[in-house]
TrEMBL record:
InterPro entries: HTH-type_LysR_regulators, LysR_HTH_N, LysR_subst-bd, WH-like_DNA-bd_sf, WH_DNA-bd_sf. SUPFAM superfamilies: Periplasmic binding protein-like II, Winged helix' DNA-binding domain. This is LysR family transcriptional regulator. GO terms for molecular function: DNA binding; DNA-binding transcription factor activity. One of its GO terms (cellular component) is cytosol. Residues 1-58 form the HTH lysR-type domain. The keyword ATP-binding does not apply. Gene3D superfamilies: 3.40.190.290, Winged helix-like DNA-binding domain superfamily/Winged helix DNA-binding domain (1.10.10.10). It holds the Pfam family LysR_substrate. It comes from Candidatus Allofournierella pullistercoris. Belongs to the LysR transcriptional regulatory family. Keywords: DNA-binding, Transcription, Transcription regulation.
Length: 298
């Protein structure tokens, strides 16, 4: 059985006449007659009853027609899906992103992306940046979004933005500052915070790595360090009066619900670059590029 045979059979069933079906299919009547004879011989059943100039389906013919129509419809669906893939409208996209940034970005990005590409199967993986990078290099993910600490030669990057780092402390902590940033937040040095416990992300997380490197460059040794992979927990503890947590600018508004707290921009701390990353040498489909564009707008 091939698709052409199915099309021949469906045409005969719909036209109920060999001559009319042959005209519709642009084949000769003898060709279609021989086709039907061979088909009925092969299945060992009569599929039509000949009544004058009309051909009516037998029960076996009705069942054959149902299967033929279903298979032809599946073929159309497959052709449509393959055409969408060729046009970069369908496929799979596996995205890796740290949990806090995921909480901030995905509620905005995923609905918009799904409207643009409803045929793209999207999956989101939340892990720390080091694990995400390994998964991306090994082909387990297609696209990552995280802070960039150092370049991996196996990956390509698109910089989506750069963010300053802020220290978060309880409102009861009065820190002296004679300077304010462009957002009106007071500015303090890392050394001014060293009398407080530092609530730091682990070095495998980009923000944790960034802070540890900054401490080493500035020669700052805090009184105590408590590591946690959970940024929300760190901010909540700082707001509650235990130590100082560190977050990038885009998370300040998002984490205000954990407050009240005061935020101070770190002096001489530079900015953390936020990037999209994918494997070097791999061409991104259009829907992946659109996902990057949406993430850049957050």
């Amino acid at each position: 059985m091939d698709l052409r045979e199915l099309e021949y059979f469906v045409a005969i069933a719909h036209q109920q006449n060999i001559t009319h079906a042959a005209q519709k299919l642009y084949v000769s009547q003898p060709t279609l007659t021989k086709f039907l004879q061979r088909l009925e011989q092969r299945v060992g059943l009569a599929l039509f009853e000949r009544k004058g100039g009309s051909m009516e389906l037998t029960y076996a013919g009705e069942r054959y027609l149902a299967w033929a129509v279903d298979m032809l419809q599946r073929k159309e669906e497959l052709d449509s899906e393959l055409a969408a893939i060729r046009q970069d409208k369908a496929g799979k996209l596996r995205v890796g992103i740290p949990s806090v940034r995921c909480s901030v970005a995905m509620p905005k990005v995923v609905p918009a992306f799904s409207k643009l590409y409803p045929q793209v199967e999207l999956s989101i993986v939340e892990q720390d940046s080091q694990q995400l990078e390994q998964a991306l290099v090994q082909g387990e993910l297609d696209l990552n979004f995280y802070n960039l600490s150092k370049y991996c030669l196996l990956l390509e990057y698109q910089i989506l933005g750069a963010e300053p780092v802020y220290a978060v402390v309880a409102c009861t902590q009065q820190l002296e500052s004679g300077q304010r940033d462009e957002n009106g937040c007071p500015v303090v040095s890392l050394g001014q915070l060293a009398h407080l416990p530092f609530l730091l992300q682990k070095p495998s997380q980009r923000q944790g790595e960034y802070l540890y490197n900054l401490m080493a460059m500035q020669g700052v040794s805090p009184r105590k360090i408590l590591e946690t992979s959970n940024i929300r927990a760190a901010v909540s503890m700082a707001a509650g009066g235990y130590g100082v947590a560190f977050i990038s600018r885009s998370f300040l508004d998002y984490l205000k619900e954990l407050g009240p707290f005061d935020a101070y921009r770190l002096k001489d701390a530079g900015q953390m670059q936020y990037v999209a990353a994918w494997r070097k040498g791999e061409a991104l489909p259009q829907y992946a590029k659109e996902f990057i564009r949406l993430m850049a707008c957050i």
